[in-house]
Structure formats: structure tokens, C-alpha cells
Amino acid sequence: MKSPRIVGSMNQRMNQFVVILGAGESGVGAAILAKRMGFTCLVSDAGKLQPPHLEELKQFDIEWEEGHHSEERILTADIVIKSPGIPEKNSLVKKIREKGIELVSEIEWAWRFIGDSKVIAITGSNGKTTTTALTYHICKHAGLDCALVGNIGYSFARQVALDPKPWYVAEVSSFQLDDIKEFRPHVAVLTNITEDHLDRYDYQFINYIRSKFRITMNQGPSDYFIYCEDDEVTMQHINEFQLLSNPLPISMRKELLQGAFIKDQEMNIATKDEKFQMSIYDFALKGKHNQYNTMAAGLAASVIGLRKDKIREAIQSFEALEHRMETVATVRGVEFVNDSKATNVNSTWYALESMNKPVILILGGVDKGNDYSLLLDLVKEKVKAIVCMGVDNRKIQEAFQNHVPVMVNTGSAAEAVHSAFQLSNKGDVVLLSPACASFDLFKNYEDRGKQFKEAVLAL
Fold first, then answer.
1. Is residue 1 part of a domain?
2. Is residue 384 pLDDT above 90, yes or no?
3. N or C, which end of the chain has less CB nearby within 10 Å?
4. Which one is predicted more confidently, 204 or 293?
5. Was 129 annotated as part of a binding site?
6. 62 in the Ramachandran plot: left (φ > 0), alpha (ψ -120 to 50) or beta?
7. Which residue from 186, 187, 190 is spatially nearest to 210, judged by alpha carbons?
8. Does one domain contain both 353 and 378?
């Protein structure tokens, strides 16, 4: 299969003009790689550049502009690398498309310069960050020379430019997959597909589903595709795509000859070359959803030939991620859990499903076309109060006001924490699992989680 690993000679590159739209982590990483590889490049951001990113652009002598886009100049580019945050309906993106200028994502750009290195890429609506972090932890523990890149860790392009590795473990979003052309992971993992980011996909679920399956589109017979056979959406649509790689399903509902399954509290992993078992009671990550994540990570590690004793040890020693079901503190018998990374309804569903104490639930933020009815049964069963934390909470109020005894509106993390604490009793849990994006009140989900934790520790 053709792969543009080398983009022209150094002399040819010097005559090519690369524009990077967006000066966040992925944009700056893409620019550093472009500069290192000999291209003339411009970083253009409609907003204000953050000081650390600005310093890096100066350090690498990269041209930049902020507060506007120089459209006339940008439209002379040979290649445009687009930040995943910029939607397709953006007027400048439309003009770039109309001119026939090549437009790619940062992961596609990085891919073109990795030589013979290989990628394990993980996507999905829920669980991808945990699965990526666990896969990386297993690989490192087993002695693999690898880097953690993508939505978690450094941008892929930055890593390739400054510290290339034989292996990359990458978390990739649907937005990044939308603009790939040849990106080809040796191991692709699709954790699940649930309704998310529908605002970016014209509120058509099928568009989002197609985006997720793009992770497989360039794979060949020597590659592997790990997916969840228990996920209804994945299984309803899997036959619509031409899959040339080796399929490796995971399941809790049936035994599999190839793949991973859990039966009688034992995880069973079977690939062509290896079989091994491990008790789920030895998993560092608890909860049913994390059993799926652990199966996917363990299977990915097994299929690239890592030793099973090292896989077992790493699964036992893994530490949970910040902002993902992170226990912050227990204050006067009330447990506070930070699940700020739950930016969609299904993530919140998994969080609630794992709760075994009465819950005061903190919800809210930027709604992405959420269907809160999915939470209704769990809310009725487990939630004694809802604290809304957002600029516009009407949709949450309408969804739950007839089913929860108490609902309050708040406009900051500190206010939400204080309200939740007042509504709680000893033995309760205050769960921040917003089901929404964070951009109305916070910079990002990390900022939201950090402010939540600070407010809890100040009680």
C-alpha cells in the first residue's frame, strides 16, 4: 500500500509553503515538524496565542500571526494542516477546499515522517483515554521504546520532530480522523461508538460513525483491528466498511477463539501466537467499563508480541488518570470524585453505573446535542440531587426536574462544590461528571477538573 512517508527532497520542501491553522499543542507540534523537515511555514490563529506556544514558535524561528487569518496568503499554500478544533463549515476551510489545496490533520502530517516506526491508535466515544494510557503503560513496562501521543501527551508531530520513536501509542479523535489520507496504524482500537459531537456532524449520527471507522481505512492484511463485539452501534455498521486488517473482537457476552473475553471473572486473551488468562480481581482499574478498556489494551499489547508476564504486571500496577473517576478527597464522610473528562452522556452513564453510594451529581456545560433520557433510569436509582454547573442549564432542568428531589443552578466550580456539599450527608458521593464540554465556564476539561479539586480541598 502506497504511503507518503517522505514528502519530497529537502530542496523540494524548501519551495513548498505549509500553513498551520491553529496554534494549540497540535498546531505548534505540526509547525515544529514542518520547520525541522525544511518547509517554509506559517502558523495562523484567529485567537490570541498562549505564551508557552508563542515562545516555542520564536525558539524555532517559525512565522506566526494571531487575531486574524491572512486569507490571501493562506490560499497560496501547498499544504494546510488544520487544528482538530476548527470545523469543516469554517469559511476559510471552505475556501481552502474550493481552491483544491491539500488539507490534512496533524496526525496525518506526523505519519508522513515516521519512517518504519509503527502506531497503535485508539479511538472511541468513551474509554479511549484510559485505554491509550493503559496500553502505553503496558508497552513501557515491557521495555518497548515508545511515546504517548495525540489527544493525550505530546502532539504526534512534536514527538516525531523532537524525539522520534520506533513505536507510538496514539489517542485519536474523530476530528483528527476526518482529515487523514494515508494514516495507517498497525493496531487500531475502536472502544465503542455512542452519540457525541453531533454538532460537528450536522446532527447526523451516521456521519460520526463513519468518522470513527476511518481509523481502519488504510489498514492491510498485516495490521489488526480491535473492536467491541458487545457494542451495538459498532456491530450494526461494521459490515458497511471494507476491513482488510485482522479482526480481534472483545466481549463479556461470549467466548471468542481470537480476541479477548471475560468469563467466570477471568480475562482470556487469544491471538495467533499467544493465549493467557488473568483474574479481573487483579485489574488495577475497577468497574465494568474498565474491564473493556483493560481487555482492549491487553489485546493490543499481546498482538505486538509483548510478554504475557509483563502485560499482567502492568495491568496490576496501572494508576488511574487525572480527571477520570479520580477520587479527590473524603470530607466529613462525603467522597468527592472528579470525572471532568466525562464530556458526553455515555461517559456520565458509565460513571453513574459504577456508583454504589447515594450521588449528588454535578452536570452541565456546553451541550453537544445530548440526549439526557439515556441517564434517566440511573438518575432515578442513584441520584438524590443534581447541581447544574453551566451558563445555560435549561435542557438539564427539563430532563430531570420531575425525577430528582432537588436541583440547583450554579455558575462556577466553587459554587457547585459548596452547593453539593450542603446537599450531602455522610456516606454520599459528590460526582463531577458533567456530560458536556467545558468551554462555557472553563478553558477545557482539565481546567474544570482542577478548579473542582481546588474547591473540594478548600472545604
1. no
2. yes
3. N
4. 293
5. yes
6. beta
7. 190
8. yes
